[in-house]
Design brief:
- The chain is built from 8 helices and 16 strands.
- It is of the alpha/beta class.
- The strands form 4 sheets. The chain has a 7-stranded mixed sheet with strand order 1-2-3-4-5-8-9. Strands 10-11-12-13-14 form a 5-stranded mixed sheet, with no helix packed on it.
- The longest helix is centred in the last third of the chain and has 17 residues.
- The radius of gyration is 18 Å and the shape is globular.
- It starts with a strand and ends with a strand.
- The chain binds zinc ion (ZN).
- Zinc ion binds next to helix 5.
């Protein structure tokens, strides 16, 4: 299932495209003999992943885009390193669903790494401008602070043109910890992948839909110790997964991931391990 109705919301999930990262980095302390059974690496040891985005529309005319993929500004060298072969699909996917960029009212990034925020802006001659000219861009304040002042460990993941120009354009909306962005649509800061990573949770009509973030980027990261080496706070990731996954099973949440195939599914506990089943 790629479209869900949650109370007053229609939620679509689609992919901006495929990119590739080193499989060892993605699976942290898990040995390759285990993870390569689930994800086959290429000759450079990279695994392919979707960059999933959400389109959330409600009955009052709010249009929310969550994640903007890798965007149109990468250099040929960056596209080669990250294995991006096709143009970014975000704007085409929105167009297919009848949404123009100037109709988007809110843009949410779970965090500001290049594969989540690249489509926030585009190059217009010498300038870098907002891709969604009327939208407020909603980030956690801590994520904004860390992205604007990266250190030697974090610098490679943040590309300043993806978010910096939004401040001068007056389009920033920084939030702290847990907020209800629209009725029944919550953002929660979960320290793990970064300090300022946020998840999206939508509740209504007896259903809850949860969009993770990179502390749980796909179904292969459901086992508690399968934690990416990119995570800056891996033990916080561990505890967040423990708490969130238990609730997701108990309350039968619809779950979608940042870097899995763009589908909604449910989690069940079977034979002592968590299984993810896509919903038709
Ligand atoms: Zn990512």
């Amino acid at each position: 299932m790629a479209t869900a109705r949650i109370g007053r919301y229609q939620v679509d999930i689609f992919s901006d495209g495929i990119f590739k990262l080193d499989g060892g980095q993605m699976f942290g302390v898990v040995p390759k003999v285990f993870w390569q059974k689930h994800k086959t690496p290429d000759e450079q040891n990279r695994i392919s992943m979707d960059m999933s985005c959400l389109l959330i529309r409600d009955t009052d005319g709010h249009v929310v885009v969550v994640e903007t993929g890798a965007g149109p500004k990468l250099t040929p060298r960056q596209r080669e390193i990250w294995g991006i072969e096709r143009p970014p699909a975000l704007l085409d996917e929105l167009k297919t669903r009848g949404v123009r960029p100037d109709e988007v009212s809110l843009v949410v990034n779970t965090h500001l790494h290049f594969d989540h925020s690249g489509g926030n802006t585009y190059r217009d001659g010498e300038r870098v401008v907002a891709a969604f000219p009327r939208a407020s861009y909603v980030f956690q304040r801590l994520e904004w602070a860390d992205a604007m002042a990266p250190n030697e460990r974090t610098r490679a993941s943040y590309l300043p043109d993806d978010f910096g120009p939004l401040e001068a354009a007056g389009r920033l909306e920084l939030v702290d910890d847990a907020v209800e962005l629209l009725p029944g649509l919550r953002l929660d800061r979960i320290q793990g992948h970064t300090r300022g990573t946020q998840t999206v949770r939508i509740t209504g009509g007896g259903e809850t839909l949860f969009f993770s973030s990179d502390f749980m980027p796909d179904r292969h990261h459901l086992p508690l110790p399968w934690i990416s080496a990119f995570d800056l706070y891996p033990l916080d990731t561990l505890e967040a997964k423990r708490a969130i996954l238990a609730r997701a099973v108990d309350e039968r949440w619809l779950v979608a991931f940042t870097h899995d195939v763009p589908r909604f599914g449910r989690l069940t506990q079977r034979d002592g391990r968590l299984q993810y089943d896509e919903v038709d």
